[in-house]
Design a protein that fits this description.
By secondary structure, the chain is α+β, with helices and mostly antiparallel strands. It has a single domain, classed as Thiol Ester Dehydrase, Chain A (Roll). The chain contains five helices and six strands. Strands 1, 2, 3, 4, 5 and 6 form a six-stranded antiparallel sheet that branches. This is Thioesterase.
C-alpha cells in the first residue's frame, strides 16, 4: 500500500512542474523515509525499487512524455532492474533521487536513479525499460528523440549478463 500512496503523492507533486524540463535532463525527486519504508531503522531493499518507480513517474510527468504516452496508448514496462547499495538510508532521512535516461537504443531506455542522503551517495537503481503499445515495443527514439551517444560499457556488460542468464548453454 505504501508504494501506491507514494506514487499518488509523487504524481500530485509532479503535476505542478508538468513539462518543466526536457527528456535529456537529470530530475531530482525528494522523499522522506517513513516507518512504512524501513525494517527496524533502515530503508528496506525492495523500497529502493518503489522509490525508483515513483521517480520514473515523476520524470514522465515533468518532461511531458506522459501526455504523448496516454494519448497514444503507450505504457512502460521494466524489463530488468539492477541495484547497488552503498550506505544505509535511515528512518526519517530526507532522500534525493537524481533520475536521468543514460542511454536508449532501438528497444530499451536505460534509467539511472542515484540515491543521496545529504550530499552522500547511498545507492543506485538502474532500470532497463520498454515503451509498449499493446504487444508492440515502441522504439524509445519516437518519444525521446534520437540518441547521440554510444552504449556505455557498464550497460553492455549488464546486457551480456542478462543474455547469459537467458541462454545458459552459451
Amino acid at each position: 500500500m505504501s508504494g501506491l500512496l507514494r506514487n499518488l503523492l509523487t504524481i500530485f507533486k509532479a503535476l505542478f512542474r508538468y513539462r518543466s524540463t526536457g527528456a535529456d535532463s537529470c530530475i531530482a525527486s525528494h522523499f522522506l523515509i517513513s516507518p512504512l519504508d524501513t525494517g527496524i531503522a533502515t530503508l528496506k531493499s525492495d523500497k529502493y525499487f518503489q522509490l525508483a518507480e515513483a521517480c520514473q513517474l515523476d520524470f514522465l510527468i515533468r518532461t511531458g512524455l506522459i501526455t504523448t504516452m496516454l494519448r497514444d496508448g503507450i505504457s512502460f514496462v521494466n524489463a530488468s532492474q539492477l541495484v547497488k547499495f552503498m550506505k544505509p538510508i535511515r528512518l526519517f532521512n530526507r532522500v534525493r533521487v537524481d533520475t536521468a535516461i543514460v542511454f536508449a537504443d532501438g528497444k530499451h531506455a536505460y534509467f539511472s536513479h542515484v540515491f543521496f542522503s545529504g550530499e552522500q551517495q547511498r545507492g543506485e537503481v538502474m532500470v532497463k525499460m520498454k515503451f509498449k503499445k499493446g504487444a508492440i515495443t515502441v522504439p524509445p527514439h519516437q518519444l525521446l528523440g534520437d540518441p547521440v551517444q554510444e552504449k556505455p560499457a557498464h550497460l553492455q556488460r549488464w546486457d551480456d549478463a542478462l543474455e547469459a542468464i537467458g541462454n545458459p548453454g552459451r
